[in-house]
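name: query_chain
kind: protein
chains: 1
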Amino acid sequence: MRSVSQQQEQWSSKLGFVFATAGTAIGLGAIWKFPYIAGTSGGGAFFLLFLLFTFLIGLPLLIGEFVLGRTTGKEAVSTYKELAPKSFWPITGWIGVVACFLILSFYSVIGGWSLLYILETLTGQMNNLTVEQLSNKFGEMIASPWRALGAQALFMLMTIYVISKGVQSGIERASKIMMPALLILLVIIAARSLTLEGAWEGVQFLLKPQWSNIQSDTILFALGQAFFALSLGVSVMVTYSSYVSKKQNLPLTATIIGVMNIIVALLAGLMIFPGVFTFGLEPSEGPALIFVVLPTIFNQMPLGTLFMLAFFILFFFAALTSAFSLLEIIVATFSKGDQQKRVKFSWGIGTIIFIVGIPSALSYGVLADFQLFNLTFFDSLDYLASNILLPVGALLVALFITRKVPKERLLNEIKQGSNVGMRFFACWYFLVKYMIPLAIIIIFLDVLGVFQLFF
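structure:
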């Protein structure tokens, strides 16, 4: 019999589960990464591919991960072990653990940047600066090793503290506050950006596809962003759904999260691109885009300092909600529901992640000249996690769901808490069994240049 400390925690309410899962999905992936990836990948064409991949691949896979986690009530690695004992399939869960570890090691760097910008705004250091001055300030800030490392360490301490508190007292309580605040601020800032002179040009860049911009890398990045934005392929949602009750409507919850994710990505684009074209910047600016464009917009508007402070607090919220899910998956894998072990593993693993993240924090300073495959250490980890580990993990999850879990068990689990019929189930099962693996394999082969050998 399990002790009290070993009892599996659960979300306290349906809304708590929605906010927590939305928090991990609608975090930096939507607010920081989507605008700069869209900017470097063709704007409207990328956004259209992102929409298609989200609805046809992301949502079915999200439902599948929900089903896996709830059917066993265990974190990801244990879920695969229970459903496919004495097989290689638990490696799917371990791929997720490794991916979460790597992602958090560089996500914590961005979270640290958000803290630095909050401090700079509070002290008035961002007021009345030109685009060039803001760009230089960003470069100087992230190039300073002690500032970058100190901010990263503080961000990790906050993340570790919340995760050590557990599911209800930590993740759920924080998400219930952060998610509504994030959405409200996003709407306000996007509305202000749309009043800028170059707003329409920015809207067209984001929403009007230029088909000549679509290349194999564009397709891969859109697929990776769909997985990244919904936290798919790393078994985050398998673990989160293991804490949910049988009364939760999984298809509906997945749809809500998918739609919210697209709305937030759209709002993030509408925050950024009107300013990009108004102030003559390049949409392909990269990761720095959000730290240069938005302060420029705020400096042009009444109460701009207040809006700037609100945004970077929002950005900090987004970074934290993403970080919670990433660390939770790793800690849950090792603690196995034991609260005493949770505290120990939270601090131990969090410290190791900070250490591994040090080269990423220094990638724009003392390690700027150190490159892997023509990428900085920071960018190489991002590419490995987003464009390789996530799609491979998603492929394995899709294969596992339809080849190792009995069809009747899947149907019964999906119907728990919902009234979906056989037609919905048959469509979902077809997409997961055939379309998702096929799409991922084709895109990988295209990126590797296999088709060029024949055409």
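note: The chain has one domain: 4-453.
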